[in-house]
Amino acid sequence: MSKPKILLNRWKSKDGTILISRLQHDFVEHFDAVEQKRVFIDGGVGPYIRVSGNLENMCLYDTDDDHMEVRENYLWGTFGPNGDQPMKKVAIKDLTTDHIQNTLRTQIHLQEHVLNMFRRELTYRVLTS
Known about the structure:
The protein has 129 residues and is an alpha+beta fold. The chain has helices at residues 67-73, 97-106, 112-128, and strands spanning 6-12, 18-21, 28-32, 37-42, 50-52, 56-57, 60-61, 75-78, 88-91.
């Protein structure tokens, strides 16, 4: 079995601040009031992840165990049903089933673990309906 892939690069500082790096070059820095020093994360979901400081790992991975939390916290950009609205970020759980099916059909360039996340969501919906 392959190593789980990261879907959400999320860390918590000692002062309780949540840092999220969503894109490869998304450098996120914070001054931790408890540690009295700067901490940072970088790298989004790969191919590298950098973490500096005493941070708690709150990352989400493409495993069945994490799916309930992934569906609440993984945000997907959408331009609305006709593609004519300003982009907004929506949790996977709030996307329509048609939207997810269309994403799987048209966004074939996505990494396999992201596609699998959408497949897991469709399976979840069938099993819980």
